[in-house]
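Lab notebook, bench 4. Still working through the backlog of constructs that have no structural model yet. Next entry is a single chain of 161 residues. Request: give me the structure tokens for it.
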Amino acid sequence: MGYLGTNINMVDIKRRQELNEALELMHFGFRKLIEKPDQLLAERGMHRMHHRLLYFIARNEGLCVSDLQATLMISKQALHRPLSTLIKKGLVQSEACTEDARMRKLSLTRNGKALEVRLSRMQRNQFRKAFEHSSPGAESGWREVMSTLIGADSTSGLPQD
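Model written out:
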């Protein structure tokens, strides 16, 4: 028996430390990945959410507002302010759908495309360099872990902590 009558298994403690290290790597890796794009956005009075919107609109030209909301899993209220900012800054264009005038479809303006390319290029270059300097199989392993995390919920069969 361990402290306060609990059975402390050294393997469990070691595994918890390894998982904490993985969390820290994720935290610091993400911080590094967003550092330069966040600086560029801040110079323009914008934030990370603006980049996220630009990114998904760029990959889904003509995307309806409701589909963007569903993709990002955010409320209409959470989407409103950053999307309005992008429209006011002339980075995103919003027009009525031909099928249903109540629906709005989104596309990037030329300036919006240029900014999105610049922001995302920074991050793609970081990934490219990291994968090039990693061991063989690291990229596919990373993709597998991230894909598993994306599907990790209460119905995935993965154990919950």
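Notes after review: The longest strand covers residues 92-96. Residues 47 and 78 are 13 Å apart (CA to CA). Flag for follow-up if needed.
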